[in-house]
Amino acid sequence: MTRHHQSWIWNRTSAMVAVLASALVFATAWRAADAVDKVTGLPLHPGLEVQQEVNSPVCGHPAHIVLYDTPGTATLAEYLSWYRSQLKGAHYVHKVWSNRAQEMFYSADGATGVSLTANTSGPGVYSVAYMKISTPLSTKQMDAFEPSNPQCK
Questions:
Q1: How far is it, in rounded angstroms, from Cα 113 to Cα 32?
Q2: Where are the alpha helices (DSSP H) in the chain?
Q3: Strands 49-58 and 91-97, sheet pairing
């Protein structure tokens, strides 16, 4: 094999490796982009599927909410563990209303949040809601939020 031929093979192999590496980087970035909620930028638990998007007030402030369905195998213990590890520093609130556990995680600035709706008598998680609130909530409002107290007073 001539030196010219060896050089051509080396250049072609190097180019193919560079293309494959670029494709791998792009694919990883694409998967990472899929792993966050598009409205809040918060991490998405694996297996969530978008159910619907709604605009609804939270503590009297306009909010954009993305509702996700969970797989039938979702358990509250696993979801709480995952969100606690992913949302370090979040303000956590536990409530029960309409015989459903409400586990809420709010960003430190009160502008975004995640709410898990779960079964109070079993391990299941019904849905997960990601919310972006137009006017950030105070800690008092985060703690007071529930349907019977729509203004969070």
A1: 20
A2: 3-34, 76-86, 139-144
A3: unpaired
